[in-house]
């Protein structure tokens, strides 16, 4: 029947959009209707961008971030300080660190964090290849810059254990009061940490 | 430079995802990383679904809803009551009405609503072809089932004016207290409407 097919194509699009993180059935419907009704050009662009990224984007052999080359931009930059390796969760975190201009070493991007509930342990994270990366003989300090959430802290803890056993110096980003904040609006756990780590 | 290209493919994907309604730069980033890292199959599926829908899905010649045939399922159903035409904003509204089982006439899907701020007037909505559809000689009653928001009400008002001038009977969905609600939690405007329309 012709219409059964029709239902299926639109439904297939809605179903595919639902696989995006944070998109439920209502949003997926709204997105599908919007694309088909108001932004067919955007839909084409998205289909092409998906295809292009799938074909070309893979992981950097050294730092595991997304790249189209074998070795990414930052890892091939010989002016960077090979003695420091900063471990982060995502390319977005890397971009944030780069924007600060406060760090000139190399990175290792975990592409996630330990999450026992989702079955993601240190080996799923490529934590072992991270440790190997840290032991290239040049790295003197590994800076753990995973999130300050329960999962990020657990990830940092596990990595720190593994690295310390290998005799590498391991540091963690400082915890404290964010710049520009008024103390009365800062959560108590942050203030407590800032008090302990005062200098 | 190789890496400049790499940046561009990932950025192109993030940019394309941002065109989805309700998706900002952070969500688009999260979606792109998720697809590339954890759900490449989902990304392929989405690219294919977009392509398939773009190629095959267009508007029904009679009711303007999405279909792959010239005339959609409902419009080709001869068992339906040709004397009633229900005007709604979207295929999702149509699906909701169909699920109630309380309506057996035909539909006209506006695919939007009047929104002066976005430059959408009655002609952009295909309101004129809607009026034509209503004047096929068989339609006796047009039921306006646009949303009960300011924009939906404006749309209903404009369509009602046009249709009444042609001598077609025009009705609107009843406004009132939703089933299952306790009066104290219903907003005052709804209660006021329910009081006026009491029966």
Automatic annotation (TrEMBL), chains A, B:
Keywords: DNA damage, DNA recombination, DNA repair, Metal-binding, Zinc, Zinc-finger. It comes from the Bacteria. SUPFAM superfamilies: Recombination protein RecR. HAMAP family: RecR. PANTHER family: RECOMBINATION PROTEIN RECR. NCBIfam families: recR. This is Recombination protein RecR.
């Amino acid at each position: 029947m012709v219409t059964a097919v029709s239902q299926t194509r639109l439904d297939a699009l809605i179903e595919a959009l639902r696989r995006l993180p944070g998109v439920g059935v209502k949003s997926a419907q709204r997105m599908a209707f919007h694309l088909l009704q108001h932004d067919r050009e955007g839909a084409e662009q998205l289909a092409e961008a998906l295809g292009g990224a799938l074909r070309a984007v893979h992981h950097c052999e050294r730092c595991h971030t997304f790249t189209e080359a074998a070795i990414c931009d930052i890892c091939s930059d010989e002016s960077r300080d090979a003695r420091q390796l900063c471990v982060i969760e995502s390319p977005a975190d890397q971009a944030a660190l780069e924007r600060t201009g406060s760090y000139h070493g190399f990175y290792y991007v975990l592409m996630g964090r330990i999450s026992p509930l989702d079955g993601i342990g240190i080996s799923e994270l490529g934590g072992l290849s991270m440790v190997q990366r840290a032991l290239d003989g040049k790295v003197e300090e590994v800076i753990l810059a995973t999130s300050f959430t329960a999962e990020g802290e657990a990830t940092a803890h596990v990595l720190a254990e593994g690295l310390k056993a290998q005799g590498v110096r391991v540091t963690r980003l400082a915890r404290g009061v964010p710049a520009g904040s008024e103390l009365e609006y800062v959560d108590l756990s942050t203030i407590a940490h800032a008090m302990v780590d005062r200098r």
